[in-house]
Structures are given as C-alpha cells and as structure tokens.
Specification:
Layout lengths: L1 H14 L17 E4 L14 E4 L6 E5 L9 E5 L12 E3 L2 E3 L6 E3 L5 E3 L10 E7 L2 E5 L1
Antiparallel strand pairs: 1-10, 2-3, 3-4, 4-9, 5-6, 6-7, 7-8, 9-10
Length: 141
C-alpha cells in the first residue's frame, strides 16, 4: 500500500511542471544566444509586458517580459515564424499577442499557446528556453 501511495505521489509531483506549449511543427535547433539586458536594443524588456526583437531562430525571436519572478522565469523567447508555416513574413508583435499577418491566427506571448484562429500543428508558437544570470539572458532549445 505504501508503494502505491508513493508511486502516485511521485507521479503527481512529476506531472506538475512548466506550462510551455510544445509544437511538433518545429524541428529547428539553435545555438545558444546571449544578450545583455544593459544593451539599449533590449530596453523594452525592462518593464512587465515589454518586448524586444532579436535575430535568431527561423524568422527572428521576440523576447517578452512576463512580469513574473521568483521560481518562474520572468522572460520568454518565441520564434516569430508562424507555426502554420503558411507565411514567410514574421509574426506581428503586439504584446501580449503575436499574430500571423497571413492568416490572422493569434498566439499568447505568455506561453506560446494559440488564442484564436487555426493551427495545423499540435501546440502553439515555437518557444525557446530563457535562462538569466545577472544581466545576461541566454536563449537555447
């Protein structure tokens, strides 16, 4: 009985995790990118709901300040390539929403999930991992 309870507890604990949406349409890998928050290009990230666009990924990457802290990452990095791959134009950044200019599908910049429209992929926009060390942000797969 104790083993069953322990197994259920561990299973419940392990299932609690990041709510980042996985997308099966993106198979790209990126070399880790580093950015200094003191760089004027990233001034938009200094306030909650602020954003900055940087080179990288498939069609550029938007960094977004979710305004969270503590044990949660304050920043998220999302590829500006439309998950539907039906558009060569980068998604439009209008925090807290990313919008495909070709089909109007909208994605949340909080986690990459689809808000409205249709998506032919399982999941939402391509989200990269962001780690912060002091004033340096590192973006990786």
């Amino acid at each position: 009985m104790k083993k069953i309870l322990l197994t259920l507890f561990i299973g419940a604990f392990v299932s609690c995790g990041d709510s980042v949406v996985e997308n099966n349409c993106f198979n790209n890998s990126i070399q880790p990118l580093s950015f200094d928050l003191n760089n004027p290009q990233l001034n938009g990230l200094l306030t909650p709901n602020g954003s900055a666009i940087v080179n990288g990924g498939i069609n550029g990457i938007v960094l977004f300040n979710k305004g969270t802290g503590g044990s949660f990452s304050q920043y998220i990095a999302i590829d500006r390539q439309s998950p539907n791959r039906d558009c060569g134009t980068p998604m439009i950044v209008n925090p807290p929403i990313l919008e495909c200019p070709c089909d109007g599908t909208k994605y949340s910049m909080l986690d990459g999930s689809i808000i409205s429209g249709e998506n032919s992929c399982a999941g939402g926009a391509r989200v990269y991992t962001v780690t912060q060390s002091g004033s340096t942000l590192q973006i990786s797969n």
